[in-house]
Design goal:
mainly alpha; HTH marR-type domain-containing protein; three-stranded antiparallel beta sheet; about 160 residues; disordered N terminus; globular; DNA binding
Length: about 160
């Protein structure tokens, strides 16, 4: 019997080509990491990423049509429909026909959905804590300001803004 030798990798694999410090790559990795962390925290309260933003939008802006909510969140109407179906099955939102136009559904939070607000506030605080670990308050402020500029640049180039 022959013995196989396994060579250990001495460096981390990269998906960023020759420049792992490239801004685009770092942004993509940070966004993916954020989504993974957020998904884990939201799973604790039976929500998926994106559903938190829909609930916050309804709490901040009141009942909305599905189309208006999709525009507000910067997502496709079909994606919004699937998200709302899940939220409705969970009892967190309700949809009812608009009195002005019965073909339009108005989305509202339910008492069960409203009861999630303290939990979502906790998740928001925890994700902020995890994202900014090791940064001073001044660094957090600078990072937020710089990312706002990047977001605005992306929104301008994409012809749409993402809230």
């Amino acid at each position: 019997m022959t013995e196989l030798t396994v060579l250990e990798e001495t460096t981390e694999p990269t998906v960023c080509g020759e420049n792992p410090g490239d801004l685009s790559c770092v942004m993509a990795q940070a966004a993916r990491g954020h989504r993974v962390l957020l998904a884990a925290l939201l799973a604790e309260i039976d929500l998926y990423p994106g559903q938190d933003r829909a609930l916050f939008a309804l709490w901040e802006n009141g009942p909305q049509s599905q189309n208006a909510l999709a525009r507000l969140l910067g997502i496709d109407v079909s994606t919004m429909t699937k998200m709302l179906q899940r939220l409705e099955r969970s009892g967190f939102i309700s949809r009812s026909p608009s009195p002005a136009n019965r073909r339009i559904s108005i989305v509202s939070t339910t008492p069960a959905g409203d009861a999630l607000r303290p939990e979502l506030d906790r998740v928001t605080a925890e994700i902020h804590r995890q994202l900014t670990r090791g940064l001073s308050p001044e660094q957090v402020e600078t990072l937020t300001s710089l990312l706002s500029v990047v977001r605005d640049n992306v929104c301008r180039e994409a012809g749409a803004c993402f809230t």
